[in-house]
Design a protein that fits this description.
Elements lengths: L1 H20 L1 H31 L2 E2 L8 E2 L3 H8 L1 H32 L6 H13 L2 H12 L5 H8 L11 H30 L2 H9 L4 H12 L1 H16 L3 H6 L11 H11 L3 H33 L8
Antiparallel strand pairs: 1-2
Helix pairs in contact: 2-14, 4-8, 4-11, 5-8, 8-11, 9-10, 11-14, 13-14
Amino acid sequence: MRAGTSEYLLAPGKWKRFKIRHRDALLAAVILVPMIFFWLVVSGFPTLFGFLLGFFRWIGLADSPKFTGLDNFVRFFKEPMYTHALWRSIWLGGLVTAITLLSGFGAALLMNMPLRGKGVYRSIWYIPAITSTVATTQIFNLFLDTNNGVINNILKSLGKEPIVWQYSVGWGIFWIVVYSVWKGVGNAALLWLAGLQSVDHSLYEAAAVDGAGSYGKLRHVTIPGLKPIATYIVITSLIAAIQIYEQVLFITNGGPYGKTEVLVFRIYRDGFWDFNLGMAGASSLIMAIIVIVITVLYYGWSTSSDRKTTIPIKKGG
């Protein structure tokens, strides 16, 4: 009894020492545990449930799910509407990513120059990133209206025939790319700007001493110094671009005849229009795997290129 009593009396002191020793870990747990729980409830469990649906045949909410194994996945690769939507997501996402990153890099170079009113200039570039996609696409569509759109009114004033944008695959893709780049260039520019400002200025001074001009500094100092943040920007931008959805929904609605459908839009149609929950889950899982594979491949290529450009230092050299 005495031993048990003494251990009980020492327990508060041990707990106090434990709190002092692991204060940072306990503080991190207090902050992270509610966030992790919230993520699991709002996103984690629904995402896992959606992936599991891919192994079931479930059409309509009144129907009961039936386990079909890999049938939905086999159907995905057999039916052209899914493979075409997947391929369209990949090449369209790559095109949007390339244009957005190049445009953002050019804007970041301008932002990094000693200009007056830089804060206003940077804010203007970032406004599209924080505006509502629903609102801005509706304004965008006012310009593309067949009868009273701004662009068609200009064409009429020039004696040209108005263009029915919704019936043209080429123009539909064009406007989706234009809107996506306009929406994402501000965020890319600020990330590039953060990378530009992290490059050591002494390297520019050394390059100037060696006789390097503006192009030489950009090629031999700026671009190599941006490699770490470039990997992050490319991966995040590519993931976002491959998952383009709202632009397609509000600008072309997948038309004409499904020629501008992307995979996320196809998933939306399966899940909320046709209530084919099994195919929606299978498509979601396939897209998640493809995004992960692309990310891993690009990251591996980026890090391997960095290792090749690193010159090993020999001992005694």
